[in-house]
Amino acid sequence: MSRADLVEINFDGIVGPSHNYAGLSFGNLASTRSAGAVSHPRAAALQGIAKMRANLDLGLHQGILVPHRRPNAEWLATLGTSIDQAEPALRANAMSASPMWAANAATVSPAPDTADGRCHLSVANLLTMPHRSHEWPETLAQLRLAFGDRRRFAVHSALPAPFGDEGAANHMRLAEAPGAAGVEIFVYGHPGGRYPARQHPEASRAIARRHGLDPHKTLFAAQSEEAIAAGAFHNDVVAVADGLLLLVHEQAFADRAGLYDRLRRLLPAVEIIEVPAAAVSLEDAIRSYLFNAQLVTLPGGGHALIVPRETQAIPSVRAWLQDMLAGNGPIRRVEIVDLRESMANGGGPACLRLRVVADPATIDPRFLVDVERLERIAHVVAQHWPETISSSQLGDPALRAKIAAARDELLGLLKLTDPNK
Ligand code: SUG
């Protein structure tokens, strides 16, 4: 049985006015490459808004999460310092606009999958990276506002240390329809490799338990070591799922045959499109963010793949996309979006959004957008977001005042009081 009132809504993190390139994410090659570059917060936020606008034009439902207050003064205070006293590395950690990557905000199990019939959301602790480890309290406050209807939603706090959890970026759901019971796949990494494994298996298991998932319909799969070593710091850099379709790189998982086999037994109608390494190398997949696409079901049926522009600059990826479209498979359309600013920090189309399956009427409307509301947000961004930030400027009190004022303008427009206050 499928519930027709439940639809997929993408909640995108609006890029905050402090967006900058401080090279904070070891193992995220784009972040390391961009360290020290001049960022463009205004353009970054407008690029994200243009993506949301394009998704609305496709007939999809769209929501937002708002930028967090930066610097995070409370966090610095717990560390015995302040933004003026902190040394530059700590200051950069307190100034990051990383909450924009909403795929790391929480893990979401839609109502048809859970024992109590509510949609469960677990805010991610993101404890592996210092700049992301202090996101969760404000994310939790926003999720509790947006999904405050306790008859329909259960919003869980972050898991305790040392179990690192990075949210939906390491979680996939396959189901006949959003409102039908699905199979949830939790992907984790084994530590000890070249780069940190940010999703711990114990965290994935804890989330599945507290969301009340049916153990027979829940799968756990390890990322391959070579994927993490090549820069796939989250599974959503090498795999994406939607409906009954899984699009995956051949080298994404440690035991791909075992995973595909278990999945096919649970969901015989599943379709797996595996991109062979011979067609697209792991390196090209990660540079282009082919798999960090949004794979969506169009209202008229069929899938669309929303890919970053970088996919067009890499011949193997471009050729694979062309062949795939010519082959008349389940993906009927490819939409190309310009997210250059977020991409330079390792955040593609899928990183910027958190998928929630729900009835929009049950969500706080301040977190939902239509074209007109997006335009008003774009107007605030165009007027108030800094045009550029260089890492050396993070210590500048005038810049910090501008960042704080810009965020206040947005929260005022959205009629959201600061969830932290
Ligand atoms: O956690 N980048 C983010 C990118 C997150 C991408 N999300 C998904 N794959 N779902 C990260 O590594 C860079 C910040 C900096 O270097 O300033 C950063 O945090």
Q: Your description of this structure?
A:
It is a single chain. With 421 residues, the chain is of the alpha/beta class. It has a single domain (7-414), classed as L-arginine/glycine Amidinotransferase, Chain A. It has helices at 29-34, 41-57, 73-78, 88-95, 130-133, 136-146, 201-210, 225-229, 256-266, 282-288, 315-326, 340-343, 371-384, 397-413, and strands at 7-13, 61-65, 106-109, 119-123, 153-156, 171-174, 183-188, 218-222, 239-242, 245-249, 271-275, 294-297, 303-308, 331-337, 353-358. The strands form five sheets. A three-stranded mixed beta sheet has the order 2-1-15, sandwiched between helices. Strands 3-4-5 form a three-stranded mixed beta sheet, with helices on one face. It starts with 6 loop residues before the first strand and ends in an 8-residue tail after the last helix. N~2~-(3-carboxypropanoyl)-L-arginine binds next to loops.
Count structural domains.
1
Bound molecules: N~2~-(3-carboxypropanoyl)-L-arginine
By CATH reckoning, the class would read: Alpha Beta
Low-confidence stretches: none
Estimate percent helicity: 25-40%
Shape estimate: globular
Tell me the name of the CATH homologous superfamily.
Succinylarginine dihydrolase
For the largest beta-sheet, the strand count, sense and barrel status come to: 3 strands, mixed
Report the span from N to C terminus. 43 Å
CATH level-3 fold name: L-arginine/glycine Amidinotransferase, Chain A
Layout of secondary structure:
Layout: E1 7-13, H1 29-34, H2 41-57, E2 61-65, H3 73-78, H4 88-95, E3 106-109, E4 119-123, H5 130-133, H6 136-146, E5 153-156, E6 171-174, E7 183-188, H7 201-210, E8 218-222, H8 225-229, E9 239-242, E10 245-249, H9 256-266, E11 271-275, H10 282-288, E12 294-297, E13 303-308, H11 315-326, E14 331-337, H12 340-343, E15 353-358, H13 371-384, H14 397-413
Parallel strand pairs: 1-2, 4-5, 7-8, 10-11, 13-14
Antiparallel strand pairs: 1-15, 3-4, 6-7, 9-10, 12-13
Helix pairs in contact: 2-13, 13-14
The protein binds N~2~-(3-carboxypropanoyl)-L-arginine.
